[in-house]
């Protein structure tokens, strides 16, 4: 079965152009066949088998999915895990209050009993992966419609998964690769008792905040420390005081040597999503239509939220997580648009399409199979583009109003209660779930902020479309208030039950038909229903087109591979384990400017500004700097190195990923990409794309010297 996959990659590493940067996120399963020779040539000193092995302990056994969207790595035989500060952010924020502000002050467990549990947080190990393309595609034929195809694939997938022998804590999933030309099965072990061990203060862990985010030069100590707990058999278990630290199959060795320019490095983790093989029309849609609107709408939200945070320290904590995540994509989209323009990516894609089309037409057989493929994209995108734009307004403007998306969660309960023979058990369960989400919602909700956001977002939504193309509720609002959304939202907030936690709690404790009526008559709920009806309608219209486009993309993927048989293709990221490799490298972002590949403690002091929350430098850190109390974490140049850039191809999800040197020792924790390189999700530019890695020595320096938690470093395996 492996052959199917490899045949598509076509291995000709020898013909590849030599550059200092390496595009590609490779599947560890095929590392030996596809990448090992090249990696060794570039400097790797260990074998592919040491990195990923199906049969013996390898580096892969120390790499985890942290939570739902990050990577982490095990660094001690007591289950200690390192990840980014921004990956542990939710957990740190949850344990924070004005009295114990761990976000601002940091948190360090000085012994095991002080480690804090985090219900819902998981750490996931990969047990096994194997290619199952043939079994998944069994009975799938070309003449099927996309729906028939998906149905058959779902049936096959279910059957394959049912045949897996699994134990408690396991999860089996099958994911498509190369747009559904191939499939791989993954078996995971999911640990559910993960405790917070340490986090630096925000002015280290988030130093530079959203201003420095996505930028180089960078000085963020973006790490946090957790520990995995297991039952007495070393298996996953729910939180219990009786659980013990997990004994891993493998933990990483940590190098104290640092990195030099042009050193070989590789990164191992869970990149989320890339789209490197898209047609030009899709890139156009994303960068020219979708991104500008989402950027504009998020700017409005962020302005309001940040102003409120500046005015009130409690609001700063409450909105910290929300603002960080809204701002993160907002800023990335801007970088992405710049990068796509700078690369002239749309023209490049169009050029490729023309060449491929000519190549297709030059051969009768190819012509018969593919002649209509590329032209069909244009047809589809003409119809798809306006719908996708509407969808952005629905999601970013409609559901961007916090209370609207919260109230929308009540629709299932309303339905259940109003059913003819409603089932008490189901209703109870729905209420329990809603109690949990209201707990989280009200803890961090400030109605005045949301009111201003609602007023701004609705104004944009209404201005973007003629009346008859708006959701029904917005048509009514516009007719009644003719543009005076401040007035409307003030009334809305005054009338709605959803700002009243007690009332909502009461209803959830006694969800009678009469009480539920109060919800279904609520103006916020009515607004949410109108939005979701609108969203559903768009989705129905989009679905058919998307199905056509999915099928075209799968064929186009295959066509691109046939057109360039000498090229080594890697599958787009899909939140499965990948390896990327490259070199420690500087870059030149613009004419006459060249960036050094590393930053130091000196730079933190240069950036210091006591009047700005994100640029405060702790006295303790200044003291360590003044006395040069750097211990074994000092670089040969006499200072502390904070972060470095390298040409490893990464994306969101690679946060927290271990970065290794040629010997497979941990040299850093990946946490970002550079602003000039954020278009790499759509098109990689070896000249500009760099991943940003926290130097592991700064991380250890902060744990040991700054926080006085050297007992954690003692647990680790350091290589001098
Ligand atoms: N840009 C990084 C990533 O995509 C870090 C995000 C968290 N930091 C922040 N300032 N919002 O996840
Ligand atoms: N910060 C990103 C994350 O959370 C990694 C940076 C990137 O997108 O490359 O995964």
Quick rundown:
48% of the residues lie in helices and 15% in strands. The chain has 720 residues and is α+β, with helices and mostly antiparallel strands. The strands form four sheets. Strands 1, 2, 3, 4, 5, 6, 7, 8, 9, 10 and 11 form an eleven-stranded antiparallel β-sheet that branches. It has a seven-stranded antiparallel β-sheet with strand order 14-13-19-20-21-18-17.
Could you explain how this protein is built, in words?
- By secondary structure, the protein is α+β, with helices and mostly antiparallel strands.
- The protein folds into 2 domains: 1-122 and 192-273 and 578-676 and 683-720, Thrombin, subunit H (Beta Barrel), CATH 2.40.10; 280-558, no CATH class.
- The chain has 29 helices and 22 strands.
- The strands form 4 sheets. Strands 1, 2, 3, 4, 5, 6, 7, 8, 9, 10 and 11 form an 11-stranded antiparallel β-sheet that branches. Strands 14-13-19-20-21-18-17 form a 7-stranded antiparallel β-sheet.
- A hairpin with a 3-residue loop joins strand 1 (63-66) and strand 2.
- Helix 11 runs antiparallel to helix 14 and helix 18 packs across helix 24.
- It is globular.
- The two termini are 43 Å apart.
Draw up the topology in text:
Elements: H1 2-9, H2 31-34, H3 36-42, H4 48-51, E1 63-66, E2 70-74, E3 80-83, H5 85-94, H6 102-105, E4 107-108, E5 116-117, E6 123-131, H7 133-136, H8 146-163, E7 170-177, E8 182-191, E9 193-199, H9 202-205, H10 209-212, E10 224-230, E11 244-245, E12 253-255, E13 264-269, H11 280-311, H12 313-318, H13 320-343, H14 345-361, H15 364-370, H16 373-398, H17 402-408, H18 411-418, H19 424-443, H20 447-464, H21 472-481, H22 485-495, H23 501-509, H24 513-520, H25 523-563, E14 578-583, E15 587-590, E16 593-595, E17 598-600, H26 601-607, H27 619-626, E18 641-646, E19 658-660, E20 666-673, E21 691-695, H28 696-706, H29 710-715, E22 717-719
Parallel strand pairs: 12-22
Antiparallel strand pairs: 1-2, 1-6, 2-3, 3-10, 4-9, 5-9, 6-8, 7-8, 9-10, 10-11, 13-14, 13-19, 15-16, 17-18, 18-21, 19-20, 20-21
The structure holds arginine and glutamic acid.
